[in-house]
Amino acid sequence: MGRQVAIISAGFSEHASKRSDVNMAELVNEAVNDCLKKVPSLSIKDIDAYVNGNMPAFEGANLPELWMTDWLGARNKPLIRVTTGGTTGGSVGIAGYYSVAAGLPGIDTVLAVAFEQQSQGDTSIGLSSVALGEISVLNTLGLPYEYLTRLMSAGGAIGLASYQAANYMNKSKIREEDLARVVVQNRRNAAKTWWSHLKMPNLTIEEVLDTPYISYPLRYGMVCPASDGACAVLFTTEEKAKDLCDTPVYVNGVASVAHESVIIGYDASGSAQLDPSEQLGAMKSSEIAYNQAGISFPRKEIDYAEVYSPFPNQELMWVEKLGLFEENTAPEMYENEVTSLNGELPICCSGGVNATNAIGASALERPAVAALQIMGKASNQVPKTVHTAIGHGWGGMLNLCTMMVLSDQQQRKWR
Amino acid sequence: MSKRTLRKSLDYVKKDYVETRKMPGNWYLSSYQYKFNITHHQSFLKKLKDKKLVGNKCSACNRVFFPPRFVCGKCLVKPDQWVDLRDTGQVSTYTIVYLKDPETGEVLEKPVVMVQQDNCDTNYMAELQSYIDFKDTYIGMPIKVHWAESTNGNLKDIEYYDLIEDDSKDLDVSKD
Questions:
Q1: A240-243 — which CB contacts under 8 Å span 24+ positions?
Q2: What are the pLDDT digits (tens) for B10-36?
Q3: What domain range includes position B160?
Q4: ipTM, interface predicted TM-score of the complex
Q5: Is residue B10 part of a domain?
């Protein structure tokens, strides 16, 4: 049986659309230094192993972990790399958790680092290369490229999300104001976070609704930016964590579940997931993670949630699918400020992915912020005491979802 | 240019960073050979030439796939039964895309839909007839296949989807 794992620190680099002053390795170094600064009694020599990851196709630099070893401080130490698209950060965090939980001799403290410098390369080419296999099959079967790009709404994640948004809006009977309200909450929260990208302290719903459509029902003001940034999280064992910091945050449940892709199936077949906002993969991943953590009533037991929502309709959808609210009630909760900083269940107080999206790092930033909220060290700290929090990640056409349940109490079910 | 398509950005707190040296480089991502099995597509494409739709059915979970699929992801078996499908269906989800006409520079608003064919369990993306307004598109809209004039046995034989006009008599009564 695995060991109890704890997070003792998390660090970020500054996020911006163009970090022209640093290269990829220096950007990562910024996050690693910020992470180590928060635990003064631990030096770089005490870290036993490294996990890192990003999406190399988005930057156009292959095998970055080989030439940034010195910037990580990973010389002569075990180093593995994980890449799973949008959930790269979540998978890096889970790999860090597994490395410690396995109980290998000599591996107690593991640093997980995820990063992305999108201004270096062309993200849309990287994204289209993901679906290139399917597109070339459809092209072979007789559909011209020009017709396909039109059908897939210029490719990439926004095409998928706009179908999802149309379905969600039809199902829960909401208007565009409800989507804009989520954006306003996120961007105003981001203004209070030092590392976030889109800081808009005075944004209003009318301003968001005044921007043009990218593809219905998503407007220009609603979608996430493309950021440069990095995030680092330090995992260690229960015993060491008690010595090193005041409030260690225990990792009590992790899960990573993929479900069938929406829009197109593989090799030009149809997709059997008729409703893109159904999200059975998210429901399954939350079920597995809550079971491991011994959580029976997520709505009552979880105090804080960080969900991966590049588009506002997804934030509403995830909080329902992860069991935090009843079906179709999330828009109402945002209207009544249940999810605001001072509310009953604060969601994405760092501004979330809607305000900062360095794709590879985003899914690791979610558990990182959740851990800092439990420690009481987050830059936009919620006033109430946080005991249990979740960090969620989403990626790809495959609907791969990662979950991490964090708490200030040890796991009680099977250990 | 209409107000709908005017580009207007939102202000945010910006920080300027020092510009350092840059070096250009290239990485060709879009050239590779993708291999796939076409055996299960052959009889489907042959039927398309005769203006008929078929899907294949998994004998374990009874799901019907259109266009056909090589393996059922739920049961991990090869769907081996062929099922005839009607040419009617419904819109299962949709979006509106805004694309610039390369010649006139005008921005066109076009609905793009996912179609669920009747008696079938999968989505397939398609286009609606050009005169259907984007404002009239909705989820659950009944539609019908419009075949191309000359069919060649490929996916372009389904040119686009027509709207099914509801002409039942009781509908007229309720209008009065």
A1: A240/A8, A240/A108, A240/A109, A241/A6, A241/A8, A243/A41
A2: 788 888 888 888 888 877 766 777 777
A3: 38-175
A4: 0.85
A5: no
Residue B1 maps to a domain: no
Question: A60 and B25: CB-CB below 8 Å?
Answer: yes
User: Is B47 an 8 Å CB contact of chain A?
Assistant: no
* Domain-located, residue B11: no
- Asked if the C-beta of A383 comes within 8 angstroms of chain B's C-beta atoms, the answer is no
**CATH number of A284's domain:** 3.40.47.10
Q: Could you list the residue range(s) of the whole structural domain that residue A233 is in? A: 5-122+225-407
The number of folded domains in chain A is 1
Q: Under an 8 A CB cutoff, do A132 and B120 touch?
A: no
Domain count, chain B: 1
Does residue A297 lie within any of the structural domains?
yes
Q: How do residues A285-311 score in pLDDT, each as one tens digit?
A: 999 999 999 999 999 999 999 999 999
| Residue given tokens 């290139």 in the structure block | A132
A272 to B95: CB separation less than 8 angstroms, yes or no: no
User: What is the per-residue pLDDT across A344-396, written as a single tens digit (0 to 9) for each?
Assistant: 999 999 999 999 999 889 999 999 999 999 999 999 999 999 999 999 999 87
Residues 103-122 of B with CB under 8 A from A: 110, 112, 114, 116, 120-122
Three-class SS state of B157? helix
CB A93 within 8 A of CB A363: yes
CA pair distance B79, B58, nearest whole angstrom: 4
Q: What is the pTM of this model?
A: 0.91
